[in-house]
Amino acid sequence: MKKGNEAFKNKETDWAFRVTAAILAPIIRLLYNVKTTGMENLPKGGYILVGNHVSYLDPFAFAYSVYIHMKRVPHYLAKESIFRIPIIGKILPHVGQIPVYRSGKSNQEPLREAKRYLAAGQVMVVFPEGTLTRDPDLWPMRGKGGAIRLAIELGLPVVPAAHWGVDKVLGNYSKKFRPNPFHTVNVKIGKPMRFDHLSKDGLTNQELFDATDQIMQEVAKLVGQMRGLTPPKKLWDPTNSGQTETGNFRKDKN
C-alpha cells in the first residue's frame, strides 16, 4: 500500500483517472474545440491554476486543457452537491477530485487533502469567484482568498488562466445547450505569480484581499486579450449590487 505523498504523486498516471479521461475527453471534444496558448508560462511541479467562471461547462474546458495539452492531471475543489449525483459522484473521489462544503460542515479535511496533492507536485484548479460570474458583461468578479492562502502556506506559485467561448455552448446560468465540435474555446495561460513576501503566520485580511485582487486582475486581462476588449478597472462585487453570493441569481430575481 502506498503511503504519504507517493500515493498522491501517482495520480498523474493513476489507472482510474486515465480510464475516466479516455471516456470523457472525446465527449468534451464533441462539445467544443479547446485551444490552449501560453503553456510556456507553466512552472514545473505543483501549482494552483486559477481561472474565470462563466458557464457550468468551464471545468470541462479547463480539465481538457490541463490533461490533454498540459499533460497534467487536474484536481478540483468542487462543491459537495456534485458528489451526490448518481455514478458521477462515486467516480470523482477516485480520480482525485475533492468535495467542499458551503455551509454546515467543516472544510478542514478537504483543504488538508488539497495541500497533500499540491505538496506532492500536483496541479489544483480553482475558480476563486466561487460561483458563475454575475458581471453583466461576463468579466471575472472579485475573488475569494482560499487559493492565495494555500499558495502562501505552501510556498507555491499561482498561475492565472482564462478561457473564452464556452458561453456559446452553454450560457451563463442558462440551460440552453448548443454543442458544436467546430466552435473554438480559447484557454490562455498567464505568467505565474508568487507571494513569497507574504508571511503565512502574519497574513492580514488586507494583504490577502490585495493578493487575490492582483490574481483576478491578471485573469481579467487574459480574458480581455481574448475578447479584444479592455476589462473594467474594478472587478464586479455581487454584494455591492444586492446579489446573492451563491446560487442562480437570475432565477432568484424572477
Shape: globular
Low-confidence stretches: none
Q: What share of residues is helical?
A: 25-40%
Average predicted local confidence, pLDDT: 88
Count the strands?
7
Note the gap between the termini.
53 Å
- Main beta sheet, described? 7 strands, mixed
**Structural class label:** alpha/beta
Order of helices and strands: HHEEHEHEHEHEEHH
Q: What is the count of DSSP helices, taking H or I runs of 4+ residues?
A: 8
Rounded radius of gyration (Å): 18 Å
In the sheet with the most strands, the strands line up as 1-7-6-2-5-3-4
Strand content: 5-15%
Give an account of the 3D structure.
The chain has 254 residues and is an alpha/beta fold. The chain has eight helices and seven strands. The protein has a seven-stranded mixed sheet with strand order 1-7-6-2-5-3-4, with helices on both faces. Helix 4 links the parallel strand 3 and strand 4. Helix 2 crosses helix 3. The longest helix has 23 residues.
Concise description?
With 254 residues, the chain is an alpha/beta fold.
Give descriptors for this structure:
14% strand; alpha/beta; 8 helices; 254 residues
Could you give the topology of this structure?
Blueprint: H1 5-9, H2 15-31, E1 33-37, E2 47-50, H3 58-69, E3 74-79, H4 88-91, E4 98-100, H5 108-119, E5 123-126, H6 146-154, E6 158-164, E7 184-189, H7 205-227, H8 249-253
Parallel strand pairs: 1-7, 2-5, 2-6, 3-4, 3-5
Antiparallel strand pairs: 6-7
Helix pairs in contact: 2-3
